[in-house]
Amino acid sequence: MSRNPVKVFGITGWKNSGKTTLMEKLVAEICARGFGVSAIKHAHHNVDVDQPGKDRFRHRKVGAQEVILTSSNRWALMHELRGANEPPLAELLGKLAPVDLVLIEGYKRESHSKIEAALSPGRHPLLALEGAHITAVAAGYRVPELAVPVLNINDISAMANFIITHTGLEA
User: Fold this and answer.
1) How far apart are CA 79 and CA 64, in angstroms?
2) Are 138 and 151 in contact (CB under 8 A)?
3) pTM summary value
């Protein structure tokens, strides 16, 4: 794994566009090729990865700023914002251990390069039509001609090749 500046690439799109499934398949494919990959998922709604009633939940509820849950298999750090602003993506990237590539789901308005997932025609126009740092579209239907490559949303190998080439991982 590289100690150079982290390489990031995003998967974005509108709600129910196939982002999460695409992320899952791309993480598996790129890891299978021998690269270390981490992931960041942005949510627009109030989420909690914890369960009410568990000790760690109770610790956070009564005021702990951070809680680490650890076991012989994994550890997780939960940080309460307690009214503070959501940290910027760059700050979150700095919290990750070094890897070859960080795949980011969401963050459609951030400036990193992204593939737009478009499983089927939706209510919204493609983000690629407005730029949004979209470098390719992964489509499950025939889309109009675009200024960026259009990839088959089911061709995970081609998308992994695109990401690896675009980020310079193959070098």
Assistant:
1) 9
2) yes
3) 0.85
Domains along the chain? Answer: 7-47+86-167 (3.40.50.300)
* Residues β-bridged to residue 73: none
Q: How far is CA 33 from CA 27, 36, 127, 160, in A?
A: 10, 9, 29, 9
Q: Which tens digit of pLDDT belongs to each residue from 55-85?
A: 666 665 666 677 777 888 888 887 888 888 9
Question: C-alpha 90: how far from its chain's center?
Answer: 13
Q: Which distant-in-sequence residues (6+ apart) come within 8 Å of 140 by Cβ?
A: 18, 118, 119, 120, 152, 153, 154
pLDDT in tens, 78-125: 788 888 898 999 999 988 999 999 999 999 889 999 999 999 997 889
Other CB atoms within 10 A of residue 100 CB: 20
